[in-house]
Amino acid sequence: MATLSDLPLLVLATLAKVVVVLVVLLTAIAYIVWMERKVVARIQSRWGPYLVGPHGLLQPVADGLKFLFKEDIVPDKVDRPIFWLAPFLAFTLAFLSISVIPFGESVTIAGHTIPFQITDLNVGLLFVLAVTSLGVYGVALAGWSSNSKFPLFGGLRSSAQLISYELSLGLAVVGVVMIAGSLSLREIVEQQRGLWNIVKQPIGFLLYFTAAIAETNRTPFDLPEAESELVGGYHTEYSSFKFAMFFMAEYANMVTVSCLATSLFFGGWLGPVFGPPLLRAILPVLWFALKVLAFLFVYIWIRGTLPRFRYDQLMSFGWRFMLPVALLNVLGTSLILAWRSV
Amino acid sequence: MIAPLFYIFAGLAIVAGLSVVLQRTPVYSALSLILVLCTLAVIYLLLGAEFLAVVQVIVYAGAIMVLFVFVIMLLNARQEAPTDRSRFARRLGLPLLALFLAEILFVVLDYFSGAVFAPGQAFDAGPHAVGSLLFRNYVLPFEVTSILILVAVMGAVVLAKKQL
Amino acid sequence: MVPVSHVLALSVILFGLGAAGFIVRRNIITIFMCIELMLNAVNLAFIAFSRYLGNLDGQIFVFFVIVVAAAEAAVGLAIIIAVQRNRQTLSIDDLDSMKM
User: Which of A82, A159, A210, B72 has a CA positioned 20 to 30 A from the CA of residue A269?
Assistant: First the structure.
């Protein structure tokens, strides 16, 4: 337990962790975009970015510079305060849920043990769900404030999709919570030392991943922002930096979802650990990063392979298939757990 | 540590509450109400109710207010203009309300003048404690409210239909 | 730690703001939002008392208040949509008679 005299050190350690995580996350987002363009290109039998830097590795840098220097066009009749608020809201909320994710075990520096997690809330999983719930506003307000038909419809459709799949997302992880007996993400990972949750909750994992793809507005659930359907959807009227914020928010959400999927179902940072203490501290983080990268690859793979759902198919899938299956999963898990404890 | 945080968020809640009441555009009122809900969630955390704080954000700020925002956007609610009736209400109702509230405030401040919260973690208000109380002592109200929500969902669908 | 009376004073002030908005405003949706503000003020009072008396029942009550507020919001907003469709107005000054 931290005491009052530990407070300055605690604040310093937390600030350092926040800075490191932010820097890593921003770089990761830039290079996930690169990875996506390369992987989708290869799936479609073409090269992808090739010219800027070796194998297009400097493409994200070029794109970032482009976003900074592009002209910022704001249409006349938009609701200015909300027009400015929406991308910042989406961006902030996307980066907020990373703060409860455990990246690794802990490292001991000068007698103080610092866990590889910005903060371990004992309602950590609910915190992530709460931030996801609030994320609906970024989309809805962006669509409304643009004062134009396509963004409004795109925003409303996207918000309706988000709140529908939020239910299945929440219910899919209830099984994991029941098995672990705790909502704290670190404890859920610790519980998987014997056997990963994917073995105990396969249906829960499939439900979670599908709902997560819908929550992050990715193919095959990306109708609200598909170019051929609604121009740009809720971010039609946004340009340059504000559009970049929506873009980064979407990829940050992808990263959060992948981190959560590894923590909840694939044992988080658990993996073979050996060697001197420094290696012992770094290896769990490495295993975590590899698992998250695998998930991001699956995300991009699905994007390159599957066609888009129509909006009514999307909604009926969420309400008529995923919700009942999630409820049955909760029922089945609780029956098995009750049977075991008898 | 807790006291200055409480006063900051209490001030924010009051400013946001004023904004809910005074804004001309319904969308700004809705956003201010969301701000009130989030500041109240932080105050619940400061008072030790960790599960309810998160439930407040997920359910109230994240679902109920989304309903409000949707309806405001779909009905294209415009700015409202002051009318004769509202002037009458303002002249008669507000002074009476202020009197009533001053009376409640006086009684509350007087009766609880010396009371302080027990320092530290007075009791466990995590999901486990709230859940076991909810599903043991209060299971009947729980089931009744689930039927209530079912009725509300059916009612909302029927009421908002274009043709029955 | 904060004295109990301060938390209750915040609850009373928020309730008062909600009630004032309920009395003065003319737009139905804004009135509805002031009702929600009043409900939240009451929730705060419940949680303050729950902490003061060390009894978790206050928080259970808040749980039920939130749930009932959700049900009420759903039905109320559906009624508002139906009213807007039939009368083309959202001002309660124009909605004061049952005649079509």
Answer: A210
Q: Does the pLDDT at position A55 exceed 60?
A: yes
Distance of CA C33 to the CA centre of its chain: 6
- The runs of H, that is alpha helices, within chain A are 7-43, 59-69, 80-96, 124-145, 149-172, 174-180, 185-190, 197-200, 202-215, 227-230, 240-265, 277-305, 311-316, 323-341
Chain A residues in contact with B31 (beta carbon < 8 A): 82, 141
**How many independent structural domains does chain C possess?**
1
What pLDDT is recorded for position A1? 46
Set of chain B residues whose Cβ sits within 8 Å of the Cβ of C14: 13-14, 17, 36
Residues of B in contact with A2 (CB under 8 A): none
Mutate to test the interface with A, among B33, B45, B67, B73 (most CBs of A within 10 A): B73
Contact assignment for C57 to B133 by CB distance below 8 Å: yes
pTM of the predicted protein model: 0.91
CB A243: neighbour CB atoms within 10 A?
Answer: 18
Neighbours of chain C (3+ CB pairs under 8 A): B
Answer for the pair A156, A244: CB distance below 8 angstroms, yes or no. Answer: no
- At residue B44, φ and ψ (nearest 5 deg) are -60, -40
Q: What band does A227 get if pLDDT is binned at 50, 70 and 90?
A: low
ipTM: 0.92
Domain-wise residue ranges, chain A: 4-341
Residue C100 resides in a domain = no
Within 13 Å, how many C-alpha atoms sit on residue B4's CB side? 1
**Residue in chain C nearest B62 by alpha carbon:** C70
Token reading at A39: 């992987």
Mutate to test the interface with B, among C33, C49, C86, C97 (most CBs of B within 10 A): C33
**Contacts B43 to C, Cβ<8 Å:** 7, 10, 44
What would the pLDDT profile of A152-209 be if each residue is shown by its tens digit? 888 888 888 999 999 999 999 999 999 988 899 988 998 888 888 888 889 999 999 9
